Amino acid sequence: MVENGDARGAGAAQHVSRLVAPESAPGVRASEELERGNILFFPRSPFPLSEGDRAFLLDQKQTGAGYHKNIAYRPAENRLTGTDKMGEAATAHLKTILRSYSDWAAAFLDRLIPEYSGQWTRDFASYRSIEEKGRTARTTARNDLAHVDAFPTRPTHGDRILRVFTNINPSQGRVWITSETFEGLAARFARDVGIPEEPGAGAHSFARLAKALGIRQWTRSPYDSFMLRFHDFLKENTEFQEKCIKQRWEFPPGSCWICYTDMVSHAVLSGQFALEQTFLISRKAMALPDQSPIRILERICGHPLSR
Ligand SMILES: [Fe+2]
Predict the structure, then answer these.
(1) What is the distance between the alpha carbons of residues 190 and 12, in angstroms, rounded to a whole number?
(2) How buried is residue 3: exposed, middle or buried, by Cβ count under 10 Å (0-12/13-18/19+)?
(3) How many angstroms does the Cα of residue 218 sit away from the middle of ligand 1?
């Protein structure tokens, strides 16, 4: 069962995530639920994973516990990374499974939210085979500290980060906490994080230079730069981590859940063996555009943060 145990201070919160099970609420509009910062939950993942493939995945023991040890699949290149120490046959098998998860997630998203169709790109898929409890990493790379996602190497310019997770562990739940959603956090912290007060300040000049030079990782908008700083700010803010609202969710074995992780502040406390596919959804596809992080920030600073 999913637990919603500890919502310390939730009385003061106006922006917390809810779990929504579309299969038990047929009228629900999935896009709007996600865009409000809620989590779509499917008790039985519709991903058809054979017992043989599951056994193979559970048998993959990654060495080392570094942050970058997730096995990632890049659909656009049909390439797997993070498998340096695996043999050729195992790597090929893993790639086949991750490719099928990626294909399944894309088809599932299309069925679930047809209004997004044609307005997203498929980012990486990953296999998370390391036990999250006790995992060591530098502060800003820790998964067990509440944060919203931002990608250092893939600026989104206001497009959204949507992730589809499946817990393939046969016996152990994957435990998250979520805190306030983006709107509440931005209202409290945007100025501390250094939201650009002037139009054109910050990353635009770098972006122009980088574009001219063809350096992809520099083509960040002020929005992207802010989101990266926000990610680090939350993880490094000890007081926030200690005192923030915490709702605990346990995603049971075999379940699937979907959320905008640029909006739902989340931390993974424990769990091992999960599949995940990331989508970048165009900001133009939003059913509730005013609730997207870039629009929330632009209301605060009063000028555009991306072109
Ligand atoms: Fe995250």
Answers:
(1) 19
(2) exposed
(3) 22
As given in the structure block, the two tokens for residue 119 are 């307005």
For residue 253, report the phi and psi dihedrals to the nearest 5 degrees: -55, 135
Chain position carrying tokens 């574009």: 211
Give distance in angstroms: CA of 37 to centre of ligand 1: 14
pTM given for the model: 0.91
Place of tokens 């493939």: 53
Q: In tens digits, what is the pLDDT along the chain, a chain of 307 residues?
A: 454 544 444 444 468 999 999 989 888 999 999 999 999 999 999 999 999 999 999 998 655 444 446 799 999 999 998 887 788 899 999 999 999 999 999 999 999 999 999 999 999 999 999 999 988 889 998 999 999 999 998 999 999 999 999 999 999 999 999 999 999 999 999 999 999 887 866 555 555 666 666 665 557 899 999 999 999 999 999 999 999 999 999 999 999 999 999 999 999 999 999 999 999 999 999 999 999 999 999 999 999 999 7
Alpha-carbon distance of 18 to 247, in angstroms, equals 9
Centre of ligand 1 to C-alpha 284, Å, is 23
Question: Across-strand partners of 297?
Answer: none
E strand or H helix at 256, and its extent?
Answer: strand 256-260
Output the CA 85–ligand 1 centroid distance in Å.
25
